[in-house]
Amino acid sequence: MNTPDTDTPTLHPLTGLGWNPRVARAFDAVAGAGEHPLLPARVASSRRGGALVRLPGETPADYAPALTRAAQADPSCAPCAGDWVAVRRSGDTWLVEAVLERSSSLVRQGVAKDSHDQVLAANVDAVLICEAADQGPNVGRLERFLSLVWASGATPVVAVTKTELAGDGLPGVLELVRAATTGADVYAVSAHTGDGLEELSARFLPGSSWVLLGTSGAGKSSLVNAIAGRPLMATGEVRQDKRGRHTTTHRQLLELPGGALVLDIPGVRRIDVPGDPGGVDQTFADVRELAGKCRFRDCAHESEPGCAILAAVDEGELDARRLARWNRLRREAEWNRSRGDQRVRAERKQRWKAADQEARANAWRKRGG
Is residue 76 part of a domain? Predict the structure, then answer.
């Protein structure tokens, strides 16, 4: 897990929001190049054309014209929950002039036809992935969540929630979850009975920033309230088909009594893995380790002789379904990467075309046309 800096000046007004030397350096770089006096702020939630920022007091802010143009060209440039930004006063309005460099970005890819990324949250130290014990678990979905988090630069932590509802099936649920979470810690917790809360709560260090990720009905809001020891988030009922209702409809920044910060985002039912293959590789580290033992470096793990992965499947050391999911997510990551490359090439071509047209127009004007 990314450990927050501990040598932050305690008198800074944004210390409680995660201000640290890295953010200070990023802000100084932007403020030194700006035309107007700027102040740092952290985004609590975002909306089209603006955001709710903490200074540390909470206030709405609109995008400055330059930021609006950048966000229109690439939505991933727009401020999102957890972002550090530089703001200035313009009359009675606060304007977001720039988004500071992000230490991590939780990015969902493949949700738009133009293949632009959707940044769910930024500057996160850890992501708590919630899987309800009475609903599965859905191992394929969990692996997608893990791939997303590993690719973001944050540390994934898995909470198997609602353990009081699993009954005798809880050991089997935990076994499935742990088999799919190579390199990530797993906690069995119940917001209702308090089981496992003390151990999980110890992970929420002062100044650290967390995101809760999981489907609606996974118990995220109840879990945060239990860790905080008081109601911070609204909770919703679970339907008879065990699919939760979307209690959270916007992103918000919450402060826990112990000093940790939680960025709550709406429940996510569909995740396309990022084009960065590193997230999938980290999620399937056990399969990747086997791949390194194959006889041929370019082994496709299908029918080649000396394939260590196929041998592990034959010997019962690797579940064939996990191998199939690894192959599926690898192909998906490659497809999403190619979509992004195609978009970049198309945008570059458009810029070149516009520059060529402008040059032709300038030449025509010089000739007295």
Answer: yes
217 is in an annotated binding site: yes
130 is in an annotated binding site: no
Q: What is the pTM of this model?
A: 0.81
Q: What is the dihedral of CA 181, 186, 188, 190, to 10 degrees?
A: -100
The reply, when asked if residue 229 is annotated as ligand binding, is no
Whether residue 221 is annotated as binding a ligand: the answer is: yes
Q: Are residues 96 and 103 in contact, defined by beta-carbon separation less than 8 angstroms?
A: no
Q: Check residue 33 and give its pLDDT.
A: 82
Count of domains forming the chain:
2
* Structural domain for 160, as ranges: 106-264
- The per-residue pLDDT for range 183-206, each reduced to its tens digit, is 999 999 999 999 999 999 999 999
Which one-letter amino acid corresponds to residue 236? G
- Specify whether 202 is located in the same domain as 163: yes
Are 161 and 133 contacting, i.e. CB atoms less than 8 angstroms apart? yes
User: According to the annotation, is 222 in a ligand binding site?
Assistant: yes
Q: Is 104 marked within a binding site?
A: no
Look up the CATH number of the domain holding residue 183.
3.40.50.300
The answer to the question of whether 218 is labelled as a binding residue is: yes
219 known ligand binder: yes
Q: Is 301 annotated as a binding residue?
A: yes
List all residues 6 or more positions away from 20 whose beta carbon is below 8 Å from its beta carbon. 4, 5, 8, 207
Residue type, 296: F
